[in-house]
Amino acid sequence: MAAEDQRPKAKSQKPIDWARVNRVLVVKLRSIGDTVLATPSLISLKRFLPDARIDILLEDWVAPVLDGFEPVNDVLVVGKGLAGRMQTASELKRRGYDVAFNLHGGTTATFFTAASRARHRVGLATYQYSFLYNHLLSSPAAFWGRDVMHSAEQQLALLGSVGVPVEDRPESHLIVSPRALHALEDKLSDSALRTPHSAFALLHPGTAFFTKQWPPKYFAHVAEYLYERGIPSVAIGSRSESGILQEVADSASVAIATFDDLTLPEITALASKAKLFVGNDSGIAHIAAAVNIPSVVIFGSSNRNHWRPWTDAPNEIVYEEFACQPCPGYECKEFGEPRCILSVQPQKVFDAIDRVLSKSV
Fold first, then answer.
1. Residue 114's CATH number
2. What pLDDT is recorded for position 8?
């Protein structure tokens, strides 16, 4: 028996007859990075079921990240409020899915998975309300035979447990929309970066948690270092990160183009044209990895094994080792301030940039 056949399968009421599967739902109600890291699972599904309809249910604000993504037929979004959610549930039931995968075990995701009334509902045994599933994998660690794994591998394990081939563990991948590229050209026309076809570095100095926030002044030093190498920098962020972008620009002795108004498809398009990405551990870092751009990602509180770039493009993660890592990141219980991220010195990032660029020539 092949090694893959010896792996734990999902405990099921009845095995899935894949020859009779025509409609598949994937539920992933999470953030940008989580959604990007679901793309290996979506690629595996479409490759296994090229003629099946594969839909994904996402939060409305993150859904545009999958604009044009070929393995998916429909990107569905969760409706607003109770009435909107009930309407979403009704629509899922109407579509008549044969199989539904919940790639994250939140209670809302479980509700929608159950509401789909799919004949086969796949989840982890550790999910709350696991009785609503009829295919349960004990754990991704049991499937892969190791405890240390990436988020993409955890999701792939769910598919593999019910017979979807996932051995090659596809890389994350996003589509660059021609419409987004055109819109980007217009936005760049008035900036210091005249065209997205110039060699430039993309910086993302923001992040969701202060325990993952490398100081903005250090990103200014990165821009200066790159400028010395003939590479201008573009710094991006959300509206809520505009203050960080301004601090980076004000701290740098060189010009930095900054944007806080790009859509997710425009960010993907911009990243695809960059020579290099440098940023904190964030969803934008995963977008850069998904368009195969060399990257340097600075880590603080989060799990490096779980959240590193999932790509074969040249990349490095930069961090300082602390015994308290990883942690949830909502606060720094150990020191009061996140020394893990604050202790990373610019020179360490410069060295990583040099190594990554040397590999990408």
1. 3.40.50.2000
2. 75
Q: Is the pTM above the cut of 0.85?
A: yes
Please write the tens of the pLDDT for every residue from 148-200: 999 999 999 999 999 999 999 999 999 999 999 999 988 887 665 554 456 89
**Which of 160, 187, 214 is where one domain is finished?**
160
Sign of the alpha-carbon torsion through 44, 47, 48, 52: positive
298-322 pLDDT, tens digit each: 999 999 999 999 999 999 999 999 9
Structure tokens that stand for 14 in this block: 């009845």
Are residues 259 and 339 both part of a single domain? yes
Shared domain for 255 and 326, answered yes or no, is yes
Encoded tokens for 52: 């099946």
CA distances from 255 to 71, 199, 223 (A): 40, 15, 9
Query: 11-12 and 135-137 as β-strands: parallel, antiparallel, unpaired?
Result: antiparallel
Report how far residue 339's alpha carbon sits from residue 211's, in angstroms, rounded to the nearest whole number.
8
Residue 10 domain flag: yes
The DSSP secondary-structure symbol of 44 reads H
Please tell me the distance from the alpha carbon of residue 86 to that of residue 78, in angstroms, as a whole number: 9
- H helix runs in the chain, sequence order: 32-36, 39-48, 81-95, 107-115, 140-144, 151-160, 178-188, 216-228, 242-251, 264-273, 283-290, 304-307, 339-342, 346-359
Cα distances from 84 to residues 25, 40, 78, 81, in angstroms, run 19, 29, 7, 5
| Residue 2: predicted pLDDT | 40
Domain tally, the chain: 2
What type of residue is 106? G
Query: Are residues 192 and 156 located together in one domain of the fold?
Result: no
Structure confidence by residue, pLDDT tens digits, 1-44 = 344 456 777 776 678 999 999 999 999 998 999 999 999 999 99
How many CA atoms lie less than 13 Å away from 42 in the CB half-sphere?
26
Q: Is 44 a domain residue?
A: yes
Q: Is the same domain home to 323 and 185?
A: yes
* Nearest of 338, 306, 298 to residue 322 by alpha carbon: 338
- Say if residue 170 is preceded by a cis peptide, omega within 30 of 0: no
Domain containing 109 equals: 3-160
Confirm if 314 and 333 have CB atoms less than 8 A apart.
no
| Six-digit token string for 77 | 């979004």
